[in-house]
UniProtKB/TrEMBL annotation:
The keyword Iron does not apply. It catalyses: 2 GTP = 3',3'-c-di-GMP + 2 diphosphate. This is diguanylate cyclase. Its EC number is 2.7.7.65. Pfam families: GGDEF (PF00990), PAS_4 (PF08448). It is an enzyme of class 2 (transferase). Residues 186-319 form the GGDEF domain.
Length: 320
């Protein structure tokens, strides 16, 4: 085989690899007009090399942020350095649909890319070459893992039945607020409430009915919360609400509104209409308290006073 035939064969092989390689290869001139467009780009864009030849990149692909891409490419042209883009910073350069069955949940192809300069014989940069990598598998796996971690983190602080904060996470918030109040002179109030005669509901209708009642009261608590309030399920049928930057007089108004909304509530369970009431206790933060548990105990005393005085009422605890 002659040298000329060898050279032709090598060019043929290179062109074959260029068209079949599983990465996108794009060459632009310095005016951002497309000069080279390989098979990967054709397959994912639906545009042939002939259709894109000498076309202005940003006219063909309006989803590309022109200012951003020019800022990435300017140092490549001026300094002859490579530039890189990663999907964590920008999901893609070319918005191609994702067709991979394994990562079918992704709407589009996540991409990393490398941009490097192409120079003429005198060393002047005349073109830019883009290598586009499909990293959808990696991106989707990472996103799903982070989502699972986020859900797991949420589960560790949320009560499953009520979807309010669980006792541990709620109490952490209370401790933070207690420390803040010890340092700064603000007024915050703690509200504890308990479902009246809850054991009677369980004994009469069963624990499934009790769960429905607990969920319904949690919904009523949520509807009466302000954005700054922090509510949690403190015990079986007991709820705790931290009313931040709220003096006890204002907290009593909110507590009464919650009591009335529960009193007027009709809970349907197996074609039966259940009625329940709440007993509520309030305690304002007191600078004499040395730990947050004293605040809980004070609010509990208000709750027990409501129980002792006939239930279905709000009692504000006042230290002697």
């Amino acid at each position: 085989m002659s040298q000329a035939q060898v050279d032709v064969s090598e060019v043929h092989w290179l062109m074959d690899m260029f068209q079949t390689v599983d990465v996108g290869l794009v060459v632009l001139n310095c005016d951002y007009r497309i000069q080279v467009w390989n098979g990967f780009m054709e397959n994912h864009s639906g545009l042939t090399p002939r259709q894109v030849r000498d076309r202005y990149l940003f006219d063909l692909f309006s989803e590309i942020d022109e200012d951003w891409l020019r800022r990435k490419c300017d140092p490549v042209i001026l300094l002859k350095n490579r530039a890189f883009t990663i999907w964590e910073q920008r999901p893609y350069i070319f918005k191609f649909r994702n067709y991979r069955p394994i990562t079918g949940s992704a709407e589009y192809m996540y991409q990393n890319s490398t941009i490097f300069p192409l120079s003429d014989a005198r060393g002047k940069v005349t073109h830019l070459c883009f290598i586009i990598y499909d990293v959808t598998d990696v991106a989707v796996s990472r996103i799903e893992l982070e989502s699972m971690n986020g859900r797991l983190k949420q589960l560790t602080k949320t009560d499953f039945l009520t979807q309010l904060f669980n006792r541990g996470h709620w109490e952490e918030n209370l401790m933070r607020e207690f420390k803040r109040l010890k340092r700064y002179p603000h007024k915050s109030t703690l509200l504890m409430c308990d479902i009246d005669h809850f054991k009677r509901i369980n004994d009469t209708y069963g624990h499934a009915a009790g769960d429905v009642v607990i969920q319904s009261i949690a919904d009523a608590v949520r509807k009466n919360l302000r954005t700054t309030d922090i509510a949690g399920r403190y015990g079986g049928e007991e709820y705790a609400i931290l009313l931040v930057d709220t003096p006890i007089e204002q907290a009593a108004i909110l507590a009464e509104r919650l009591r009335q909304s529960v009193e007027s509530l009709t809970i349907n369970y197996n074609d039966k209409a259940l009625k329940v009431t709440l007993s509520l206790g309030l305690a304002e933060f007191n600078a004499d308290m040395s730990e947050h548990r004293q605040w809980i105990e004070a609010s509990d005393k208000g709750l027990y006073m409501s129980k002792a005085n006939g239930r279905n009422q709000v009692t504000s605890y006042q230290p002697e």
